[in-house]
Amino acid sequence: MKYALALALLLFSSFVWAEEPPAASPASLAPGMVHPGYEEKPAWFKESFLDIRDDLKEASTAGKRLILYFYQDGCPYCAKLLKEDFGKQAIADKTQQHFDVIAINMWGDRDVTDLDGKAATEKGFAAALKVQYTPTLLFLDETGKVALRVNGYYAPDKFELALDYVAGKHEREGGFREYYASLPASKNRTD
Predict the structure, then answer these.
(1) Is residue 151 within 8 Å of residue 106, measured between CB atoms?
(2) pTM for this structure?
(3) Which positions ≥6 away from 142 have C-beta within 8 Å?
(4) Whole-number Cα distances in Å, 72 to 83, 105, 146
(5) Distance between CA atoms of residues 45 and 148, nearest Å
(6) Which of 54, 67, 122, 159 has its CA 20 to 30 A from that of 115?
(7) Which residues fall within 8 angstroms of residue 5, CB to CB, at 6 or more apart?
(8) Which residues pair with 93 in a beta bridge?
């Protein structure tokens, strides 16, 4: 009899629970709250209205190139990129000197205007660019063409070489793989 009563209470409580509306969805956090796994971006990342045409023009006018950094909260390799790569002063300095960096949440709902003037959400923009995992970095040249696409995490040494490749406009001479292979062994310490 005790077990029947306990079972009835359990079934009734699960029925009531299912009928109650869910709490705030993860996308609608209270002001000041962040998603689990959120990582603070460096203060020198560009604050953007996410009109990529304007961002590209501003970067070009400043003699820089544009990096679109696609991330997601809770991504361990995004955290590693922010802490271990951008956390190194030499990499941070080189990046700031040659690039404007814009962070885009691959699951985000902010409006983005692409280079053709088409509006989409961050997640729609990421999908259109075939961003499938994070981090993904798109290094854009002055015309908006992708000079280098980095899918996944590069260790600091290799990441710095990627910065050198794009800042030096070496994509005009060939691909990053060839550039990397042509460097002395002491330069390309990581694979």
Answers:
(1) no
(2) 0.79
(3) 56, 59, 60, 65
(4) 15, 5, 21
(5) 19
(6) 159
(7) none
(8) none
